[in-house]
Each structure stands twice: as structure tokens, then as C-alpha cells.
Amino acid sequence: MNRGSGESRGGVNLPALRGYNEALLLDLLRGAGPAGLGRAELAARTGLTPQAVSKITARLGADGLIAEAGRAASTGGKPRTLLRLVPDARHAAGVHLDRDELRAVRVDLAGRVVAESSGPLEFGAGPEAAVEAVVRAVRRVADPAGLPLVGVGVAAPGPLDHRAGAMGRVTGFPSWKGFPLRGVLEGRLGLPVLLDKDTNAGAAAAAGAWLRAAWPGEDADADAGVDVGAGGGRGADVGPDADAYAGGGSPTCVYVHVGTGIGAGLWLGGGVYRGARSAAGEFGHQVILLDGPPCRCGARGCMEVLCLEAVARGDLSEAARILGEGAANLVALLDVDRVLLGGRVVAAAPEVFVAGVGAVLAARALDPARPVVALAGAGVPEGAAELALAPLFGRAG
Known about the structure:
This protein is 37% helix and 19% strand. The chain has helices at 18-32, 39-46, 50-62, 127-141, 181-189, 198-212, 220-223, 242-248, 303-312, 316-334, 344-348, 350-364, 380-389, and strands at 37-38, 66-71, 81-85, 91-97, 101-108, 113-120, 149-156, 160-161, 166-167, 193-197, 253-258, 262-268, 271-272, 338-342, 372-375. The longest helix is centred in the last third of the chain and has 19 residues, at 316-334.
């Protein structure tokens, strides 16, 4: 999806698609940041008529979602009025259900965190206990002034059925299989809920960092993805590939999460790639050692068991090398721009993992312009909130 480019975004002048056109304009204004865009530019980028843009922006202004951002420099005629998104007009919540911890955040429309909460969670205690924990966490991060949430994104261990909103056969936790987590939470919270895998939320967080870079703030540098050492491949890289995202193309990345398990999220073609059965990204269960040690998934020699065994014995360099081999396999298949690393294991030794994964990618690269290897910066709950915001901006959650 081209945000900020001169290409038409394909707006449609039909009353039945009013909501779609509103989302289209909101998405462009979000990508433009505080500087905003003029109505004529919005019309040119969407293909909507100037009259349609004027009507839509009037509605969005009346709803408090957009406001004037000043006037553009005059080119001889009347200076153009610029419009911008109002980030504080709406908020969304994101929740990460990990196997032993629950983290929740509230974000504004620019994706910036405005409140957060965390605490222990016993995932093995079953779905009912987890539901109560999620409800309490969302209430803790909710706006005390009463600003309603547009929705709640919930990220959980996979596998799960994103479309049905139901949990799958999470390894080691049989009581969760088939539990309709999305529907139960919607009933308890009275809000739209989106359920996705934690790794997919991590990929969405990475993409959200490109968008947040347009909204300067005290967390802008941290959110953008930070290269902390060797293996960057394209030189020192701090922050998003802004030209690729705001200009002529969508970023592509693999988010690799290393915590109590290992998984990956894929951001391809302007959105999270989940696969036909929501099963894409089972990264940790690729076999890299035939007849290796047994994995909890039932196979032998999976990358997850090899990597986590190295972590358990304190050999983080070996763990990073193993992770790099798996990441190199994905890069060879998908030709992505960036490999972003996250999760508590990576956070405990970021330099070791960025350097180790980067070294493997460098050794196996067939193209000198290999992907950037960096820390993800934004976390899984932020990505879950980004997925909850997606429908407001005309993107699939």
C-alpha cells in the first residue's frame, strides 16, 4: 500500500462506500503526520472528486478525527488549507497473552503508547482465568476520562484460527483448543476484538513503526527499529526505511520472536501474511538437524528446541547462530527488506542476537544488498493494538 506516493489509491465515488472512502483519507493523513495534506492532494492520491473529498473531510472534522494543520506556502493563489489526523480522537487497546505474562497497552491513532500495564499470567490455568485477566488489564489501561476504545487486539500463542477467533492446539496447553476467545472477550468487553498470533502482532508492530516515524514524539526513535551492531548489511540503520514506505513501495519484513517459544510474523504486500489456514509463521518448528533432540511439537531437531537448549545452557552466541540459520532460510525464500528480532530472550542480550543473526545472513547472502537485521523496538501488545486500529484506516486487521 503506497502511503504518501503520488499514485492513486482508488477511491470510489459511491455513497454505499462512504466508510471506505473515509478510511482511505484517514490512512493518507495518518501517513502524512502532523504536517498534513491539502484537499486537492487527497483528491489526486485517491481518485476521488474534490467535491467528494470536501464532503468527507467535513464529516471527519465534525467527528473530531481531523483538524486543520495550517496553510501551505502560496504558489500565487490562495494558500491551501492543510488537514491532519487528530491522534487523540480515538484510542485502541492491545494485549499480549504470553505463557507466563500479560501485557496491555492503550495507543492513540498514530500508534503511540499512552498507557500500559503488565503482570504475571499462568496460561496453563485455562481460558476462563485468562479472560478475566484480559478484562482487568483492558480496564486498567482504559482512558480514565472515558474516551471510548475503537477495539481491542489480542495476541496469543499459536496456532489459532484468526478468522473464527478461536484458539488452536497450543503446544503444552490442550485446554485451549477450540476456545472461542474473540467471541467471549467481545461479550465481556462490549467492544470489537481481533485475535491473532503473537508473532503476527509483532510483524504489525514493525510496520506500525514506519507509520509512527511520521509522528515525532519522545518514543519515535525507539519504535522505529534499532540496529545495534554488525549484520546490518546496508550500513548503520536507525529507524525505518522511510523512503521505501512513504514513497514508492511497501516494506517487507520478518519479525522473529524468541521467548518461551520461537515464532515469526510476516509483513508482506502491505499487511500481515497469515496463510490460508492462519498457520504461516511456525518458524520455530522448521527442522534444521535431522534426528536431533525431540521437540515438544513431536518432531525432532526443530530450530526451537536447539535454540532454546543453547539459551538454557547459557550459550547465547550459539543460540543466535541457530536463529540466524532459520532466519536465513526465510530470507532466501521471501527476499524481505528487514529481519526484526524481539521477545524477552533477545531483549536480555540484544547485541549478541543482532550480531549473531547478522553474521549468518552475511555468510549465506547471495546478494550483497542483504536485509537489515535490527531490534523490533515496538512490542507485541503495540502490534495487537495496531491490528485493532487497522479497520479504521481501511486495512484488514
